[in-house]
Amino acid sequence: MREWWVHVGLICIPLVAVYLHIPPPQLSPALQKWHSSGEVFHFRGREIFYRDSYGALGSSDVVILLHGFPTSSFDWNKIWEPLTQHFHRVIALDFLGFGFSDKPRPHRYSIFEQASVVEALVAHLGLSNQRVNLVSHDYGDTVALELLFRTDQNRTGHLIINSLCLSNGGIFPETHYPRLLQKVSHLCFLHPTLQAHVESYVFGPYTQPTDAEFWDMWTGLRYNDGNLVMDSILQYINQRLKHRERWVGVLTSTFVPLHMIYGPLDPVNPHPQFIRLYQQLVQRSTVTILDEHISHYPQLEDPTGFLNAYFNFIHSF
């Protein structure tokens, strides 16, 4: 009964907000700095936000970061600087419909289109002939698998993938359990208190974001009326199911070096079901299971552990 009333609130409050024309929140200094440090390029007439930082001298290595749902490239802010000390270039983008990128509506959002966005960005940056390392999270994991499929199939315009590091993504429909509140969370992106209530489900009890960090997540979602496209983007859950053979198939057959960084307290991809299936099916991959209190956002909840795991992987081949 109590959950039913929560759902009523999730529906009613945004409707009231729309009719009252509540303006989007102002960017915090942290988000403003992130935004001002980025650029945009055009993909099929849409603006896509990205950041491209030059880092380590004497290195030619490139890493591309693919964020999750429903947030943005700002998810990587806690590990950005350490990555620039290791890689020649560190690149991240906001997928179409997310963060500071355009959020067209109506629009049929798809994993296939997002993969094409990444390929277009790589071409825009002149990196089409450069080997790149991919690091992905959640929704970004599935985009990465589509990019991997195109690489293994030698599709025109594909990336040259040097390595792939996944993290806490629902890559197996049979072990993916999105919380009910997450499924309807697009309804509450006009109200930060309700957004915080939803997001708290996917962080560990000792690794909850601060109020300021929650506000930044909500602001990124609300930017360019992003709350109004979340229901369209959520179709990716059905796409994962429909195209399981394609994406899980390439994961199990590729010879690209693979690693999984996993927060075991994740309610969406629960332990041990998820990681057991991963290790069973993806036997060429190495795995890092972080501390037991780390949940769905390991790069935010344990940035040091995430970085240590990733650097150990990169140095292993």
UniProtKB/TrEMBL annotation:
Molecular function, one GO term: monoacylglycerol lipase activity
Tell me where the transmembrane regions lie: 5-22
Location(s), subcellular: Endoplasmic reticulum membrane
Q: Does the keyword Membrane apply?
A: yes
From what superkingdom does this record's organism come? Answer: Eukaryota
Matching Pfam families, A to Z?
A: Abhydrolase_1
Q: Name one GO biological process term.
A: acylglycerol catabolic process
Q: Which UniProt keywords apply?
A: Endoplasmic reticulum, Hydrolase, Membrane, Transmembrane, Transmembrane helix
What InterPro entries does this protein map onto?
Answer: AB_hydrolase_1, AB_hydrolase_fold, AB_hydrolase_sf, Epox_hydrolase-like
Topology in the lipid bilayer is annotated as: Multi-pass membrane protein
Give the AB hydrolase-1 domain ranges: 62-303
| Chief location category | endoplasmic reticulum
The positions making up the signal sequence are none
Keyword Hydrolase on entry = yes
Cellular component GO terms, alphabetically? endoplasmic reticulum membrane
Family, similarity comment:
Belongs to the AB hydrolase superfamily.
User: What is this protein's name?
Assistant: Mesoderm specific transcript
Source organism of the structure: Sander lucioperca
